[in-house]
């Protein structure tokens, strides 16, 4: 009798437990089981921006695919480690579904066969017209699309209003080369006793980035296509040692001659925020150095000119734009879903909150000028001015040899900074080295 | 039968580790240095190029500069690290109060990461923000371009390396000093030897094996070390702080020229072998 009772009681408990388990999702009936998909990604720091993007995109993707249990496993690495890690993973054929690609890495990655060709997918997607032309083209290598440029940055003139006022400098005079040089002297004289330098001049490894805008505004180019290459027919040839390049470098020399000291250490705007310099040519990320609480009234303290100084009033200025692209590695085993993830991440609804939080600039017109612009304009200081610079923005060549070419240019700039060579000699020597690097 | 094989069996694990982590990478490195391997070709076919990568290095003026910079960096670092290490270890071996605590304090630099040390020195020596120039300013001296003067920069890094590397020499030589029988010093005192004479006629000769091994190690480390240069200056200005090891790193990982980096690495191995061979000859003398 006791045995019978025990069996009955146990059966009841088992059935009730099973029902409860199903109800609470502990056991999923076979018919209700979802297909598990984990997309993996390697992206560059800072992490917060990716948390916003991946969480937003994952949510949307799950809604779109109720039959799937989609997870995104993303690793956020420091800038240098990201490149090495991606290349190691690609060389080892490790399946990864999405990577963040610095604009200057694209050529190297595409040439190495690491990135999937997105040209056809992008055609069917039909969103090309939404992107600023420069930003869309930045995702191309040899005519094929390998990445979607997600957000960008610009470089502009930033200045402390009180320091300029104290030195009796009119900010408008910073707009021309002559004015800039004269202001440097005036600011140095007025502020030297306080330990403040007038102008900042980049002497760090990215000094070429701050020279390119002068080259571009004078009509010059870093490299250009030329026929007669010994093995490639038509290929890139160094063009930066043109008259435009020499004039541009002469302007840097004038700055050094006027007492502006090239800064070998770079603190990405912190030196400006600490009032060590009255004027600094720096990227749009400079705002991020200031606490968000100060953004509301920052334009009362800090001024911004959306340009690089030009030779004469009326000349068209130029700036350099950088930023991050999203690409799908060739090794991805879920290319269709990875493309969906990518396109969802750059969807204005998902992307805009991140741009607003981090202060980055959009690569898409609907965010830059369209319905989303009002939100960004209200929260990011000088947003309108920064956006106005995108049309004059140029990007660096995304060819595999670019890092070596930039190193050659850096050497030329340093030689001029230290008075070892004049601009023409320095650039010609650098161009000869770059030509060799390019296989000429 | 087993007895004759047994010693070799005991050696197998060590040999396996050597094979996997030393011999194979060395030969793989030689293989890469004789082919055209870059980040662009790494998953494609590797073309055999013979000595081309080595010839490229020989023709590269920046590599020549890096060898000169390496010579200055290694000579300066070894001389200062060894001199300071020997001095500190000898002084702390005297009857100094709290010498144990002092030894522990002196070891601190060795315990921290080289990258952290590099960042610290980058901030200390910065022209605008650096504490050193701040102090100079306070005492009425002109600020110095510690890291942006091509003639000064390598010595600034040598000083940083001395700070970072001296504790090892101090520790190593302290172990050597502890191994010297104290009765030898007692006998010398009875014979009327001064402390300085004891140092030159007892301590130094008996420390010789420790000194040579220490010199081999700190020389090799200085030849291969590039953390400080990479973080503090990135090799600039004008390659004035680009040592051969940093040159190798930049070729392989910044420019993606793995073969050229491998060739530079082999040249560094050769330099280390020559230095070690000479030190060992010195030891046997």
What is the CATH C-level name of chain B? Mainly Alpha
* Spatial gap, N to C terminus of chain A: 98 Å
Number of strands of chain B: 2
CATH superfamily of chain B: MetI-like
Which class do the helix and strand fractions of chain B yield? Answer: mainly alpha
- Mean pLDDT level of chain A: 90
Largest interface, per-chain counts? Answer: A-B, 35 and 28 residues
How would you describe this structure to a colleague?
The complex is a heterodimer of chains A (440) and B (285). With 440 residues, chain A is of the alpha/beta class. Chain A folds into two domains: 33-153 and 322-394, D-Maltodextrin-Binding Protein, domain 2; 155-319 and 399-437, D-Maltodextrin-Binding Protein, domain 2 (3-Layer(aba) Sandwich). Chain A contains 19 helices and 18 strands. Chain A has helices spanning 2-23, 47-64, 79-91, 106-111, 119-125, 133-137, 161-166, 177-191, 207-217, 243-257, 270-273, 298-301, 335-345, 348-358, 365-368, 373-379, 383-389, 402-417, 423-437; strands at 35-44, 68-77, 98-102, 140-141, 144-145, 148-153, 155-160, 197-199, 201-202, 223-229, 233-238, 262-263, 277-283, 302-305, 319-320, 322-327, 361-362, 393-394. In chain A, strands 2-1-3-16-6-17 form a six-stranded mixed β-sheet. In chain A, α2 crosses α13 (335-345), α2 packs antiparallel against α14 (348-358) and α9 packs across α10 (243-257). Chain B is an all-alpha fold and 285 residues long. Chain B has a single domain (58-284), classed as Orthogonal Bundle (MetI-like fold), CATH 1.10.3720.10. Chain B is 75% helix and 1% strand. Chain B is built from twelve helices and two strands. Chain B has helices at 2-33, 52-59, 61-92, 99-111, 114-125, 131-138, 153-178, 182-190, 195-224, 227-232, 244-254, 258-284; strands at residues 35-36, 47-48. A two-stranded antiparallel sheet of chain B has the order 1-2. In chain B, α5 (114-125) crosses α7 (153-178). The longest helix of chain B is centred in the N-terminal third of the chain and has 32 residues, at 2-33. Chain B is flat, with a radius of gyration of 23 Å. Chain B starts with a helix and ends with a helix. The relative contact order of chain B is 0.14. Chains A and B meet through α3, β12 and α18 of A and α11 of B.
């Amino acid at each position: 009798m006791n045995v019978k009772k025990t069996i009955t009681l146990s059966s009841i408990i088992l059935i009730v437990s099973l029902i409860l388990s199903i109800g609470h999702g502990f056991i999923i009936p076979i018919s209700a089981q979802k297909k598990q998909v984990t997309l993996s990604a390697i992206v560059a720091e800072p992490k917060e921006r990716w948390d916003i993007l991946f969480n937003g995109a994952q949510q949307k993707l799950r809604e779109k695919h109720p039959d799937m249990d989609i997870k995104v496993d993303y690793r956020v690495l420091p800038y240098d480690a990201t490149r090495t890690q991606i290349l190691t993973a690609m060389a080892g054929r490790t399946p990864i579904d999405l990577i963040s690609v610095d604009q200057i890495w694209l050529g190297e990655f595409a040439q190495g066969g690491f990135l999937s060709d997105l040209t056809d997918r992008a055609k069917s997607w039909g969103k090309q017209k939404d992107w600023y032309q420069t930003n869309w083209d930045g995702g191309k290598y040899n005519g094929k699309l390998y990445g979607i440029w997600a957000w960008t940055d610009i470089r502009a003139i930033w200045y402390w209003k009180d320091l300029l006022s104290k030195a009796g400098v009119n900010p408008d005079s910073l707009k021309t080369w002559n004015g800039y040089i004269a202001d440097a002297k005036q600011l140095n004289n007025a502020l030297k006793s306080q330990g403040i330098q007038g102008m900042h001049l980049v002497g760090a490894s990215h000094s070429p980035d701050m020279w390119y805008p002068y080259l571009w505004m004078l009509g010059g180019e870093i490299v250009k296509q030329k026929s007669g290459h010994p093995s490639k027919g038509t290929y890139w040839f160094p063009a930066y040692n043109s008259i435009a390049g020499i004039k541009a470098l002469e302007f840097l020399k004038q700055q050094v001659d006027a007492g502006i000291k090239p800064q070998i250490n770079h603190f990405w705007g912190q030196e400006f925020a600490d009032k060590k310099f009255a004027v600094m040519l720096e990227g749009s990320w400079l705002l991020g150095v200031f606490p968000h609480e100060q953004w509301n009234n920052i334009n009362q303290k800090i001024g911004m000119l959306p340009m690089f100084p030009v030779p004469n009033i009326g000349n068209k200025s130029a700036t350099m734009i950088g930023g991050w692209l999203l690409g799908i590695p060739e090794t991805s085993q879920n290319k269709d879903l990875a493309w969906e993830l990518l396109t969802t991440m750059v969807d204005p609804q998902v992307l805009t909150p991140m741009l607003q939080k981090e202060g980055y600039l959009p690569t898409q017109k609907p965010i830059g000028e369209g319905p989303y612009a009002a939100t960004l304009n209200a929260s990011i200081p000088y947003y309108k001015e920064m956006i106005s610079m995108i049309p004059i923005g140029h990007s660096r060549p995304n060819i595999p040899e670019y890092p070596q070419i930039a190193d050659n240019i850096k050497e030329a700039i340093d030689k001029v900074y230290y008075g070892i060579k004049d601009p023409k000699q320095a650039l010609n020597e650098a161009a000869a080295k770059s030509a060799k690097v390019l296989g000429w | 039968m087993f007895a004759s094989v047994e010693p070799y069996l005991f050696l197998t694990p060590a040999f396996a580790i050597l094979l996997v982590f030393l011999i194979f990478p060395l030969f793989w490195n030689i293989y890469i240095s004789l082919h055209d391997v870059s980040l662009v070709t790494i998953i494609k076919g590797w073309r055999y190029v013979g000595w081309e990568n080595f010839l490229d290095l020989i023709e590269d003026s920046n590599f020549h500069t890096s060898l000169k910079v390496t010579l200055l960096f290694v000579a300066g670092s070894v001389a200062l690290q060894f001199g300071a290490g020997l001095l500190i270890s000898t002084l702390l071996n005297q009857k100094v109060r709290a010498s144990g605590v002092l030894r522990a304090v002196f070891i601190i630099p060795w315990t921290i990461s080289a990258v952290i040390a590099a960042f610290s020195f980058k901030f200390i020596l910065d022209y605008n923000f650096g504490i050193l120039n701040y102090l100079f300013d306070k005492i009425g001296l002109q600020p110095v371009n510690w890291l942006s003067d091509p003639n000064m920069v390598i010595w600034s890094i040598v000083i940083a390396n001395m700070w970072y590397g001296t504790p090892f020499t101090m520790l190593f030589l302290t172990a050597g000093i502890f191994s010297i029988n104290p009765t030898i010093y007692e006998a010398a005192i009875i014979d009327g030897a001064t402390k300085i004479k004891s140092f030159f006629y007892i301590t130094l000769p008996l420390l010789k094996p420790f000194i040579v091994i220490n010199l081999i190690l700190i020389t090799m480390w200085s030849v291969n070390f590039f953390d400080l240069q990479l973080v503090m200056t990135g090799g600039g200005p004008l390659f004035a702080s680009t040592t051969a090891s940093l040159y190798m790193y930049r070729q392989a990982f910044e420019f993606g020229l793995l073969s050229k980096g491998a060739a530079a690495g082999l040249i560094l191995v050769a330099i280390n072998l020559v230095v070690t061979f000479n030190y060992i000859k010195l030891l046997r003398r």
